[in-house]
Model the fold of this input.
Amino acid sequence: MATTDNDHAAEDRWVDRLATPRLEPARDGVAPDEDALARILQTATTVPDHGGLRPWRFAVITGAGRERFGAALVAGLHSLRGDDLLELVVTKMQGKAFAAPCAVMLIASPDPSSNVPVWEQVASASCTGYAMVLAATALGLGAAWKSAAVLATEPVRTLFAAQDDEQLLGWINLGTPGARRERATTADGPVDLAQLVTVIASDDRPFGR
Done:
C-alpha cells in the first residue's frame, strides 16, 4: 500500500508530539479512570524485554494510599537524616505523595538466576516508566516521573514489599494536566547531535558532519 501525504503528515505530528515538553498532573486534578490506567499499564508491558522475563512490577498509589506513601517517605527521610529535621523539610517530603491524584511506583524485579544480565533486566524495567509517561500524554493526561533518595530506605521498601533483589526506580505521577510551567532556563534550540552522536562507517565522524 502506497504511503500518502496524509500518512507522512500524521507521522510528523506524532514525532513532534513526542518531542514536545509534557505537562505534569495538577495537584488537585482527577486521577485517570480504570480504563485509562489499564491502557497505560498495558503499554508499559510492551517495552524491550530480553528473554521475555517481565523483570518489573508496579504499584498504584491513590486515595488513602497517598497518606501511607507520604508516611513512608517521611519515615525514610528520618532513617537517612535523623529525627532533628526542620518541619519544612519533612512537609516537603510528605508533599511528594500528594503532588498528583494517582501515582504508579516502578519496581525492577530481576531474576538473578537468568542468563540475561541483571543490568539488562533493570534497563527493561526502567523503560516502562517512559512508556507510561508517553501513553498518559497520548491520552491527554499529565504525567511526570519522580524519584527521591529515600526510595532505598527500609520504610519505603517495606510499603511496596520490595524483595532483596528488587529496586524502586521512582514513580509516575498521573492525573489531569496542570498549567504549563515556564522552564527555569531557556533552551538554545535543538540539541547539537554532533556533540552526542558518532557515526561509525568507513571512518568515524560526528553525526551531521
